[in-house]
Amino acid sequence: MTPSAAPAAAPAATALELTGLTRRFGSLTAVDGVGLDLPVGARHALIGPNGAGKTTLLNLIAGTERPDEGTIAFLGRDVTRTAPARRSRLGIARSFQQPTAVPDLTVLDNVLLAAWQHHPDRRGAWRRTARRERLVATAGERLADVGLAGVADRPAGSLSHGQRRLLDLAAALVARPRALLLDEPAAGLTDRDVVRLLDVLGALDDDIAVLLVEHNTEVVARLARTVTVLVTGRVLASGPVREVFELPEVRSAYLDAATTSDTPPAGDGAGGGAAQGVAKAHDSGTGR
Ligand SMILES: Nc1ncnc2c1ncn2[C@@H]1O[C@H](COP(=O)(O)OP(=O)(O)OP(=O)(O)O)[C@@H](O)[C@H]1O
């Protein structure tokens, strides 16, 4: 009789778990005791006025800033002290407000570079023809996803700002990350590029958790199921987009001042997430 196989370990249900995250710059507390749980498959937006601490929070998760207090867990593993490159290889991908593609490399080579950096066998990946061809094919697919297949052989520096941001997205996605941190992905994009961005992000697999910093409330409404509002580094509210956007304190702190939309969006995000309670104005809030 063959012994029955041990049950497989249950996959982590939480992609990112932030607990009491605090980051100070001198006397300024840019991120102040933030708590946030992002389940696997989350589509979560981070909004707030300028200087609220949104980018700093992304930096803390990506590892380019270190917290003064608090912890960060990724898929159940404490990564608070893990170096950014290692976090990236573990599956935390990041896009920046400004494009980061290497201008002298071709569009395809930029995506290949990202694929190669994340490959578990970097030497072998490039030396073996079959693997190299697979990398090139995958890079080409990601470029096609973001509408850049037709310019794959052009230097990245010759692309428009919006195209370079889409190129960054292709590079972020090529290694199949499990958490995708996007810093204002729609900023500087043409209407056509925004449609492309929405299509690409809307088609992402459910095993990727997306955390999106975005000022454009229409983009938030289209992509996010849940949202956290940060004000002066603290969580003002966190929960389903529609419910949070209707809170008077959120309207007065942020939405009424937002230039992109006069009215709160009516949609409830890409997947129309399940109703969940709205966490309000605590020192640390939890958003799903
Ligand atoms: N490296 C730094 N040194 C000192 N202060 C910093 C540093 N990085 C950020 N800050 C300050 O921390 C606060 C939060 O900045 P952050 O960029 O995180 O805000 P934000 O919400 O992303 O703003 P925006 O919407 O304008 O991008 C700001 O007051 C900013 O000036």
Automatic annotation (TrEMBL):
Q: Which Gene3D superfamilies match?
A: P-loop containing nucleotide triphosphate hydrolases
Does Transport appear among the keywords?
yes
Q: What residue ranges carry the coiled-coil annotation?
A: none
Region: Disordered, residue numbers: 258-288
What would you give as a GO molecular function for this chain, any one?
ATP binding
**Keywords for the protein's UniProt record, in alphabetical order:** ATP-binding, Nucleotide-binding, Transport
Q: Which Pfam families does the entry link to? A: ABC_tran (PF00005)
The answer to whether keyword ATP-binding applies is yes
Q: Domain named ABC transporter: which ranges?
A: 16-257
Known PANTHER family for this protein?
A: ABC TRANSPORTER ATP-BINDING PROTEIN, CONSERVED COMPONENT OF ABC TRANSPORTER FOR NATURAL AMINO ACIDS-RELATED
Give the protein's recorded name: ABC transporter ATP-binding protein
- Name its species: Streptomyces synnematoformans
